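Re: that backbone. Tokens:
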């Protein structure tokens, strides 16, 4: 009995990113009860980028999973050196697409012909995406020379805004929510016979720079555990922040305002009523007419009769 070797089709979205995230987390000691109670982030400093990257690739993977069956989707394909991989490779009637996922929640994206800025910071995404598409084209053309070139796509997950000043040459930049619709609108370039042959080439581990990694049955479970801990910690931090603001506001209303009124009235009293401050201080009403202001009445002169 022979065991079927894992193919590249078995790679899951964000597989290589999650594997690196788990390796990074091995350096983190278990959180104490104190840390859990106060919502200390369970991620190591070097793990944050990997965690966000995994979130983005998983989200795009879900979107691509809703493509019709004539479309084939592959994830985390190793290419080149230094653990580089293609986030998603999609082949269908509309052609071949290398999809580079970027998770920039709440960030402002600005794009020009040769520039890609995230909150004003320049990023090499256009160059990298073009390079990936070129490498895939070269690799596949070695087996199927008649294929159209791979098209580079950048899928942005949860950006605050996307401003395209001028469309980049050779790279399509999309909000991930528009990705499925955009792919389905591409003009037909490949027929089913070509797609079957192409999918077989992509699925073969020998086509890539590293063999397919066997997908651990609990890889996603481990990520889900980390994801749950991160989200719980965030909720705790927000809760404690809100409680702190509420406590300060309560102290201001019930302690700060009375004290302010007391001292404000106490300091302003001498100019209008010299005894008002004393009333406030001792809590006893003091006669309002000072002794030195009372009217003096001369005694009546004795009357003599003669």
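Recovered sequence:
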């Amino acid at each position: 009995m022979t065991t079927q070797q894992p193919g590249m089709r078995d790679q899951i979205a964000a597989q290589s990113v999650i594997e690196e995230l788990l390796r990074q987390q091995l350096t983190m000691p278990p959180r104490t009860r104190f840390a859990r109670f106060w919502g200390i982030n369970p991620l190591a400093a070097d793990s944050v980028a990997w965690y966000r990257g995994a979130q983005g690739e998983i989200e795009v993977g879900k979107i691509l999973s809703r493509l019709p069956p004539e479309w084939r989707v592959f994830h985390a394909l190793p290419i080149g050196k230094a653990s580089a991989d293609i986030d998603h490779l999609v082949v269908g009637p509309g052609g071949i697409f290398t999809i580079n996922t970027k998770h920039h929640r709440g960030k402002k994206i600005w794009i020009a012909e040769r520039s890609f800025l995230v909150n004003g910071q320049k990023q090499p995404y256009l160059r990298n995406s073009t390079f990936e598409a070129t490498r895939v084209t070269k690799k596949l053309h070695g087996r199927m020379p008649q294929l159209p070139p791979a098209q580079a796509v950048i899928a942005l997950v949860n950006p605050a805004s996307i401003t395209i000043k001028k469309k980049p040459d050779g790279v399509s930049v999309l909000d991930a929510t528009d990705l499925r619709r955009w792919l389905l609108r591409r003009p037909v370039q490949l027929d089913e016979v070509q797609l079957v042959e192409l999918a077989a080439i992509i699925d073969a581990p020998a086509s890539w720079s590293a063999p397919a990694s066997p997908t651990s049955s609990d890889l996603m479970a481990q990520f889900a555990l980390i994801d749950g801990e991160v989200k719980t910690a965030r909720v705790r931090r927000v809760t404690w922040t809100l409680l702190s603001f509420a406590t300060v506001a309560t102290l201001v209303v019930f302690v700060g305002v009375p004290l302010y009124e007391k001292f404000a009235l106490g300091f302003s009293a001498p100019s209008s009523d010299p005894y008002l401050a004393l009333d406030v201080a001792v809590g006893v009403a003091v006669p309002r007419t000072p002794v030195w202001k009372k009217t003096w009445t001369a005694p009546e002169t004795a009357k003599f009769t003669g």
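The mean pLDDT is 86. The first strand starts at residue 72 and ends at 78.
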